[in-house]
Structure to design on (422 residues):
């Protein structure tokens, strides 16, 4: 099969790595890709959000499958445009991608499907939102409705903090139009896990869970990021919990989306809180998590390409996924200053030595080739240094050994990935 992978981060490097191992693969392109992906795929200079150019390229090359990494092209209608052009696309239609694009939509679907989650209300009037917050008290969660690059959520410890968040989101529009509507949610207490299920519109196949580390600093301190590290499996996510999540959250959502005439095909990423009353939904995403995808791909033992094709063709019922019982961990190396302002262009060395650490696997995210072909930092999250191991501790030891082999003075990482489980 000829495959066009869309995106250029650590998630896409991990997907490219897994797809490369498929006996079904004859040719892999990646748009736009990155220097790490370039070792596995032919990188094409088309932006991940340039839907028209992506579809034109896929048609010209008679691609058998387009795989969307990030959510942006999906919310822009990549899957719809592929369908119209007679191309297979792994990823939901724009209508189904609303599960990530609008938090209010997700809450409506989840409520209709009877999915357990936080008590919530939505507001377009800041005064009404403030009154509700005062009535409910803290802690309480304030969210911009639309896409805000993962930064539109404030878990407020006090009523004052919540009211300030309402002002920033709705009145000062710090996230732009995404703040026209806010959601106010009950604050769920428990361990947070990411769970992934492959969906073909009707059938959902469980993948595995991972735990992300969203705060920038050790001990879960500092501002939220896209994710500073992840591991799988999280010991708290038992078989029994997985069964509950499939029965109460994933399958009812899939059924509700189908009933609405907008069936969900692709990977459904459920952000869950494991509360004392059982697993509850925090949010959905319509793509693999990053960095979670990196540990998922390290643990996947069956053919990713065959599974993605089955999800597109509506044949997941006959498909299977096999997973290594081993643990995997990824430590994200980011540019100093991230998630605030950071410098680009600093040189990264030592990747060859890092890759030689047994069981380690390096994925590149925000990297580019600088002058003389040197590898340089070109984004906030720059490297995913991953490893597998018989135990989580072994995976962690290998991952940090590889981190320590990377020579990049401008970079930093958290030193405590996996702390909850270790
Ligand atoms: P979201 O963008 O919806 O994933 O929210 C970002 C982060 O805020 C989540 O990963 C949680 O850590 C936290 N969060 C969101 N909603 C809630 C909630 N209702 N209760 C507790 N924490 C939440
Ligand atoms: N790591 C969280 C996300 O991909 O949204």
């Amino acid at each position: 099969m000829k495959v066009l992978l869309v995106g250029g981060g650590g998630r896409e490097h991990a997907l490219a790595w897994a797809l490369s191992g498929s006996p079904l693969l004859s040719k892999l392109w990646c748009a736009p890709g990155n220097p790490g992906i370039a070792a596995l795929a032919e990188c094409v200079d088309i932006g991940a959000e340039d839907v028209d150019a992506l579809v034109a390229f896929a048609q010209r090359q008679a691609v058998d499958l387009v795989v969307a990494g990030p959510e942006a092209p999906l919310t822009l209608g990549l899957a719809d445009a592929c369908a119209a052009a007679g191309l297979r696309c792994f990823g939901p239609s724009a209508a189904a991608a609303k599960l990530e694009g609008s938090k209010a939509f997700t809450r409506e679907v989840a409520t209709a499907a009877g999915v357990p989650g936080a008590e919530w209300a939505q507001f377009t009037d800041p005064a009404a939102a403030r009154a509700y917050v005062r009535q409910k008290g803290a802690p309480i969660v304030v969210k911009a409705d639309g896409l805000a690059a993962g930064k539109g959520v404030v878990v407020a410890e006090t009523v004052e903090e919540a009211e300030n968040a309402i002002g920033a989101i709705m009145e000062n529009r710090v996230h732009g139009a995404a703040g026209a509507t806010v959601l106010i949610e009950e604050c769920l207490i428990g361990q947070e896990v990411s769970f992934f299920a492959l969906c073909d519109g009707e059938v959902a196949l469980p993948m595995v869970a991972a735990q992300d580390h969203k705060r920038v600093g050790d001990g879960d301190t500092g501002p939220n990021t896209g994710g500073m590290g992840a591991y799988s499996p999280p010991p708290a996510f038992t078989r029994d919990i997985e069964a509950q999540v499939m029965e109460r959250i994933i399958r009812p959502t899939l059924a509700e989306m189908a009933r609405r005439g907008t069936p969900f095909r692709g990977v459904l990423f459920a952000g869950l809180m494991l509360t004392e009353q059982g697993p509850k939904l925090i949010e959905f995403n319509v793509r693999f998590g990053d960095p979670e995808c990196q540990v998922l791909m390290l643990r996947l033992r069956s053919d990713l390409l065959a599974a993605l094709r089955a999800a597109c063709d509506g044949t997941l019922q006959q498909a299977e996924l096999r997973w290594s019982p081993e643990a995997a961990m990824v430590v994200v190396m980011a540019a100093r200053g991230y998630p605030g302002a950071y410098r680009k262009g600093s040189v990264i060395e030592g990747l060859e030595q890092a890759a030689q650490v047994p069981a380690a696997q390096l994925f590149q995210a925000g990297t580019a080739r600088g002058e003389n072909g040197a590898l340089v930092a070109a984004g906030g999250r720059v490297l995913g240094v991953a490893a597998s191991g018989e135990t989580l501790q072994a995976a962690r030891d290998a991952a940090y050994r590889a981190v320590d082999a990377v020579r990049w003075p401008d970079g930093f990482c958290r030193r405590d990935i996996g702390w909850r489980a270790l």
User: Anything to note?
Assistant: The chain has 13 helices and 22 strands. The chain has a mean pLDDT of 96. The two ends are 41 Å apart (CA to CA).
